[in-house]
Design brief:
The structure holds 2 protein chains of 2 kinds.
Chain A (H helix, E strand, L loop, with lengths): L28 H14 L4 H12 L2 E4 L7 H12 L4 H7 L8 E4 L4 H7 L7 E4 L10 H13 L4 E5 L2 H5 L3 H15 L3 E5 L2 H4 L2 H13 L4 E3 L11 H18 L4 E3 L7 H15 L11 E3 L2 H14 L12
Parallel strand pairs in A: 1-2, 1-8, 2-3, 3-4, 4-5, 5-6, 6-7
Helix pairs in contact in A: 1-11, 2-12, 2-13, 3-5, 6-8, 8-10, 10-11, 11-12
Chain B lengths: L3 H7 L10 H9 L6 E3 L2 E3 L5 E6 L4 E7 L3 H20 L2 H17 L1 H12 L3 H29 L4 E2 L2 E5 L5 H14 L3 E5 L6 H12 L7 E3 L4 H9 L5 E5 L2 H11 L5 E5 L5 E4 L5 H11 L13 E5 H15 L20 H16 L3 E4 L14 E4 L6 H4 L6 E7 L2 H8 L7 E5 L3 H10 L4 E4 L18 E2 L4 H6 L2 E2 L34 E3 L2 E3 L6 E5 L5 E6 L3 H12 L3 H4 L2 H17 L1 H11 L4 H19 L5 E3 L5 E9 L2 E5 L5 H14 L3 E5 L5 H13 L7 E4 L3 H10 L5 E4 L3 H10 L6 E4 L10 H4 L2 H6 L1 E9 L3
Helix pairs in contact in B: 4-6, 5-6, 6-7, 11-12, 15-16, 18-25, 20-22, 20-24, 21-22, 22-23, 25-26
The chains are: A alpha/beta, B alpha/beta.
Amino acid sequence: MTHDLSDAVPRVTGTAFTPDWFEGVRVNRGAAERRAASLTGRRSVKKDWQAAWLLRAITCIDLTTLAGDDTAGRVARLCAKARAPVRPDLLAAMGVDPITVGAVCVYPTMVPHAVRALAESGIPVASVATGFPAGLTPLPLRLEEIRYAVGEGAAEIDIVITREWALTGQWARLYDEIAAMREACGDVHMKAILATGDLQTLSTVYKASMVAMQAGADFIKTSTGKEDVNATLPVSLTMLRALRDFRDRTGQAVGFKPAGGLKTAKDALAWQILMREELGPRWLMPDLFRIGASSLLGDIERQLEHHVTGRYSAAHRHALA
Amino acid sequence: MPGISEIMQTMDYGPAPEDDSAVRAWLARHADGLGHFIDGACVPGTGDVADVIEPARDTVIARIHHATGAEIDRAVAAARRAQPGWAALSGTARARFLYAIARQVQKRERFLAVLESIDNGKTIRETRDIDVPLVARHFYHHAGWAAVLDDAFPGMEPHGVCAQVIPWNFPLLMLAWKVAPALAAGNTVVLKPADLTPLTAHALAEICVEIGMPTGVLNIVQGGGDTGAALVAHPGVDKVAFTGSTAVGRAIREATAGSGKTLTLELGGKSPFVVCEDADLDAAVEGVVDAVWFNQGEVCCAGSRVLVQEGVAEAFFDKLRARLATLRVGDPLDKTMDVGAVVSQAQLARIHALLADGQTAGAVLHSAPVTLPDVGSFCAPGFFTGTEPAHTVSRDEIFGPIAVTMTFRTPAEAIALANDTAYGLAASIWSQDIDRAMTLAAGIKAGVVWINGTNMFDANAPFGGMRDSGFGREGGREGMLAYLRAPDVPGDMRPDAAPLDPAPAGQGGDAPAMDITAKHYIGGKQSRADGGQSYPVRGADGTVIGQAALGNRKDIRNAVEAASKSPAWSQASAYTRAQVLYFLAENLSQRRAEFAALLDRCTGDRAEAEVAAAIDRCIWYAAQADKQDGGVQATQARHLTLALYEPWGVAGVVCPDEAPLLSFLSLVLPLLAHGNRVVAVASQVHPLVATTLYQVLETSDLPAGALNIVTGPRDALAATLADHADVACLWSCGSADGATDTERRAAGNLKAVWTDGGRARDWLDPAQGQGADFLHRARQVKTVWLPYGI
């Protein structure tokens, strides 16, 4: 069976604030955990299929550095890796044309360095914004931060939601705030980080997902990477089901980005299987699926070398990110 | 084969075959036929040869010999020889062997998973992740029971030799469920696997050799239905345990009637899967996947009747259809398959016939849009819409990957639809509201209830059915009780009941102060015999001391109906029941002299002692009434698992003639303490004791219908009770022939029967006439799983 996974999807427009779509929703934790736990036992990709899936995962990585000690040099090194995430000899051996990661994700002040380093590569620069990671600076400053990053050349903005509005059920306020951020983004795609580790209950995760999509988020994203618990399969499953319900109600295709906690090739495959099973193969392409990660790429590279050579690899045989 | 670049564009799953070379080599080594495992050795079979087919490929992979009568004899004899020594081992010594089996199963987990998948057609995903881990868990758990047996079950003893017959849907797991508790309790076993799936049992026999299992403790004979029938009928067997179809279970009930063999049956089901409007619908959809699309739907407890609340039904069916489209059906050894092959072409044909029947009845079949392999007995999973309770597919077990669906309006209607079945094995309830979920769990007649889940199993969670789904539990403490017994009560055989003559006796006694007409006591009222006849009752001295109503089948019918329509006693709190039974003791105590005089006239035997014992017995069961606690089973983290005690419903009691007051109360009280409504046939010879008791009952606040008393011909009334489909439990203390007749008739609705084989006991001895054994028989267990989390 073949699928046409290359058709462009129209950009999300969001909807009016519609609490009916989420207010009564209650997500069952035990069932979500069972589904998540059994999924990787139900599906498996081997040999060439595994290599293809891992290469596809690389094209979905938002290669990320979000540290207090980031510098232009650090960002340049990351961007070089983004351009050539896999050793050319390995790609050649697999008969695959050069690939890049999905994007490079940095703090706003690092955007100019990244834009420079990625010139002519076609790789978008994603910037976190809105007082990342806590998101508790005043709203005008948060909106101004978006405009700053966009002005510096960011093609994607990862915003954080105000957890207070979700935790206290002030969904209209959350909607208004995210809608204002989407407006500040303009033509630039917006990913809404729900910080699900702070929201804790799956029902709250579902509701926050739905509000973010109604407010026009192009992607919904699990975590900043700074919460105690980052992307997990049950949380991701819940967000995907919200995304699917939104798609079924509106016809709009929203993307999904797990972030934090995906460290191994096995993790990447687990999330890809989750995406494919819950949403279909179209959601495995980088316009609808991103993985926020920094160390993941190294593990995938080692797996790919093993696939090509039949010998287990070592980290130092692959360029540093 | 597509290149990597191409796969990157399609993102298809490729093939993910499990390595089966080790298993194929093992099969090749056994190409000349699998024998039996008798007295510690794998011995060649000599009976008729049957092919073992790999259902996913329709090819012969092995041959078995149906065990001959002589081979069964040898196996039973080996088990008999081994039993005293096995039982005499210390608990920890027996535990070591069970532990060794558990460890060997773990060490051979992949081999066993692949072998099971090849033999049965079920997916490697399920054998690897579910069957085999549960097998190991079961042996571990029961190694523990072996070790603590003496402390946990003081005074109990093993039955002796167990005959166990298991089905083809979970071959190795059902073996573990049967063998582990039997061996832990000190029994020895002759097991017969299904002829469709004999392979993993043979592998387990080889494991037993490997661990140095004492010879004869576990014996395995291969064969089909005839072999199974011969095994359970074998006179050398003390206990029979069967898992399989209700039809065969019924035949076993009939075949073992009067043999003195203890019986547990785990039979079919048509289990409800209830989706409430406040359910997490996506979770419930995955529940259906795990319920009826699990193991090709060849699951006795499959949630195969999906009941959806009307307001969310269309949305739910849409989601189900969408989910069907992502199911993968095919080679069971491919690690990406959700559904493998049905066990045989014959089974597939049976499924197809039922599906055709459903469509003929007007239901719409929604099937997974899959291309089935050209070879092998594969069935596309799916579900019906438009099925009604009256349709055959809604009532009969399809035993394939197809659910029927119905809608309901209210929780009460959900319960009514859920219970509209002859079966009562399991139920699955989907609701985010704890009040709603627990109300449904309490209302549905099922031995296992999963809330927001399905097909959850654990060695420490009792599993088994109500109604036509059988009786007895497997797993946990309750499961161990099925393999243990209280020591035999010595006693003389009762004589047959004398025929009763309704004609005037023509001989008299002293004129009574006032003529007393002893009637039946039905629905809280005294009622005349339907036949309009009475029979003379003679005292100890042979003179006629009164007349008792001559009951017939219609009186039994009326009494059962009264009991059935009076749920108040079953719904009362345990405290209320305790108070009523204490009050009974109080009122009996006040009339101590009157009953002593009456008993003296009737039996002339230890009358005062009997009344005193009867009052004590009331107090003892009153005390027990609010101490029947059930249990909280340790299973998985954040899975509250409750073993709730429930009454059977309407219970029948056939009373003996010895100690007529005390025996009556000794039988009736434990049933009442657990909340059963009772229809009692009073002592035929001494009915006036029971009929005098009504007045005590009436003054003791026992609700109408809780206890109904019929007098008359014991064996005829017992037969009507045994035949009655609304009587769920029957205790019969008549003659040996009566016990046989009762057990045979009980096959009709598979009621749980206890008889004493016609052996009279000394009811005045508390060791014989009361105790935990009576209480245990007076209730059934409903296991409720309540996983939680936020």
